[in-house]
Amino acid sequence: MNRFQLYQLLRRNNRLSTRRSPLFEQSKWAKALLYFVGALFALYLIIYGIIIAMTADGYAGVMVSMMPFILIIDYLLRFIFQTTPGVMVKPYILQPISRYTAIECFLISSHFSGYNFLWLAMFLPYSIIILIAGAGFWPVLIELVGCQLFIMLNSQIYLFFRTFINRNVLWFLASMVFYMLFFWPLLIKFNADTFGKMLDLYATFGRSGWLLPVLIVCLVGLFFVNRYLQFRFIYEEISKKKERALKHISQFGFLNRFGLIGEYLKIEIKSNMRNKAMRSRCILSLSMIVVFSSLTAYTDIYNSTFMTNFWCIYCFALFSVTSLTKFMGQEGNYIDLLMLHEENIIALLKAKFWFYTFALLIPFLIMLPAVFKGKFTWLMIFAYMSLAAGLVHFILFQLAVYNKQTIPLQLKITSGSNIENGWQLVIEMLALCAPGIIVSTGFVLAGETPTYIFMILLGLALVFLHPLWIRNIYQRMMKRRYENLEGFHTTRQ
Length: 493
Hints:
By secondary structure, this protein is mainly alpha-helical. It has 26 helices and no strands.
């Protein structure tokens, strides 16, 4: 069997493993929703491709000048659509084939994924319009191929940074610094004239004969870098080479007075401190809150009423949404023990509610500079914190009823895919959209101050009534317990 035949076999095995997965049937709604979102995204890309072509005046290279912005958007979207090949490579590590062969196969597959070619919805209309407007055939073709190579190169850049982010989330900040280097002229002198010269510089590069050779060299070089890194970190994770003994054990004795809820609070705190997957989600969300609140407080980028309210909402909601999206997933590793005693789950849910409610004090403290700078008001910040504690948590806690996929506590590079069912996606979208809908509707009908007061009352009401709706969640969980237990057992690694 030659290497090409082996690549074909590995790709076929990957497709079969996806179809044979116990999550395949439950993820059909999720896939349908993703296809719908993909179609809307393609429509927006077509519109923006036409708009950019209208500003090109028949000259090639304008799309290349827009690539720094496109690459940043593409990089952030890949956190949703693209995973590292570690989970696909794991079954082949001990097989009698070259140690890099499986990694090469899945790296090559990442170049030709459907998501990469989705960007042609922007590049093709742009190319057709400027070709009709008078740009030469070869310059248009070179720019079209170059833009697609930029997207493929970005998939390799994403894999490089995502591999390190899985080990330390501070690498996310390093990736943002890397993408900011595309705007290096603005770092020297920030004004409209410098911005225009930067776009002209990239447009000139897009029309030059160096575009394709430079991109191909970068693509091949980063391919071999990723091949080496993927194998090295996958081997380390599987062989547990980096596991270390704990040097200090925190008792959190002050929580003993809260009985069983206090014990589950200890578990939640220690899990977020010690387990790689949970700790990474916490640090990533807090890092993003620091970035967004700093941009709001110390720059004039988000001075409009809409943008300040938007970031105030999501700086509070981001921590809970990031941490609770896979609600009960980590407990799936030991869910059988939780079912041994009656109403054990109620104490667990209450502990989680109070943990994530008090955790909102962290984004509150982070956002105080924006309050002192006058970007946020005290009423506004208390309103959004109350809404996140009450409404957002109420919505996200419904995931406990429908989630039945175990999330590994330590494995991140080789952990399984996190395919979601339709109800999970609906609940997550509702948690993200509900605060914005309430705010926008309230501003139109009643104004800012009455809307903030209503948000505080609604949030506090759901906080005080949490024993009632948590018991309702528990009762619905018990009706689905055997179905959920089977899902948790099947997806353990």
